[in-house]
Amino acid sequence: MRIQIILWLLLFAAGRIQAGDYQLNQNCLNAYDHILSLRFGKAEEILRSESKLNPDNRIVSYLENYAGFLEVIISEDKDNYQRFSARKNTLLKNLESGNPQSPWHLYTQAQLNLQHAFASMRFEEYSSAALEINKAYRLLVKNEKLYPDFKPNQVALGLMQVLIGSIPQNYQWVTRILSLQGTVEQGISNMQKVLNDPSTDRNYPFLKAETLFLLTFTTFNLSQDPEKTGFIDEHLSSEKNRGMIEKNPLLIYAKSVFLMHTGRNELALETLKSAPTSKDYYPFYYLQYLNGVARLNRLDKEAEVWFLRYVNNFKGNSFIKSAYQRLAWIALINGDEDGYKKYMQRVLLLGNTAIDGDKQALKEANTGKIPNTILLKARLLSDGGYYAEAQSVLSSVTKTDLKDSNEITEYRYRLARNNHKWGKTALAKADYEQTIILGENQKWYYAANSALQLALIHETEGNADEARFYFEKCLSMDYDEYRTSISQKAKAGLLRLKSK
Known about the structure:
This protein is an all-alpha fold and 500 residues long. The chain has a domain at 2-228: Serine Threonine Protein Phosphatase 5, Tetratricopeptide repeat (Alpha Horseshoe). It contains 29 helices and no strands. It has helices spanning 2-18, 26-36, 40-53, 59-75, 78-86, 88-96, 103-122, 126-146, 151-165, 172-178, 184-196, 198-203, 207-222, 226-237, 242-246, 249-261, 265-273, 286-297, 303-313, 320-333, 337-349, 356-367, 373-383, 387-395, 405-421, 425-439, 446-460, 464-476, 483-499. Helix 20 packs across helix 22 and helix 27 packs parallel to helix 29.
């Protein structure tokens, strides 16, 4: 018996020595927490100390890359990106030389490739991003076979499945050539399992914040399943997660966007007000933009200050056109048409069009057409969840207030959206149908999104054939605004119906 115990102790010690170069010890856990909370300076101090204590700990290289990745994504600074890219090969070689018997070995390499892919996409280097995504996918699939219970790998693979499942229809040939497999619903479900597993908190405490952040955006952007939305709502509103969220600007961002997306504007503002402001945190100016959006949704004059802070502080390109568009809307709502034109000129000159919101802002600027102020107010109020106020504004519209076919279609669409979000589904259905009739051959998104919303209503009601008809109708339409996100949701809907 004593000999058996000695043998077990020897085997255990050997295992620890063998896996010693991937030590997720307390130092690394603390650094991980600081990184996820954007306290990069504190994380750097801890990792520097860990490197001296355990120079062979490969987790340090992984966390250094993670911090650099988040800094690049948040700042959109070209110099940061170049420094980040220059370190890639050194850090990757260090990870590749680690212990191949550890579940962290392939996982950290995959994550490094995936992080560089996302950074490359932010700077429109799509060819290198595609190669890195392919590498990451292969490594994660291989690691899943070797260590099927390794939860960090399950989350990363779940994210890859969501990405693969959301590839637009006209690029599906890429997934077939590269043998990429995954759907949006499959990926979301796999991440949900990890978040719900009690062992996640015990064994991988960092994974909760990571997974909740990823799930929030993948769910409300790509899945319209009420159960999945409810799952996110439950976790974001849980009292036991409150402390974790309030110290983490990324989770503040995720929660506030989710609340605005689900028509709870006042709660979103409360969430944004709770964001940490200490100098220990890396500047996350996008929260200023969100503060502006939330205030504009309730037609608050203070919105202007927040958008001006954003465009003056943020040195990147994302949401710059959108911020100036909203500054133009504020001027218009206040009766300043010259101010509207001034800000729309800046939409033409500044920022880029990598995201749908900025594309739509540029389109409005290019048309030179001034929005209908009444419809604009109704749209903003409805977006914020102020449905009675939005309906009051829409009820005041007369025929002379609508100047052309675009405004007539938009008016019907605004009625549909407000009634739908307000829970008045029967009225919404009729208005969506009318919007499709009016706008099916127009270049605006109103008809396409009406078809999508009708499909989702029918899916919820269990009418699979009707849902399929409207999903397909949505995908068949030719329009310019928000096409990527609308098409992704319609495609995900068809896949849900097929799986059922």
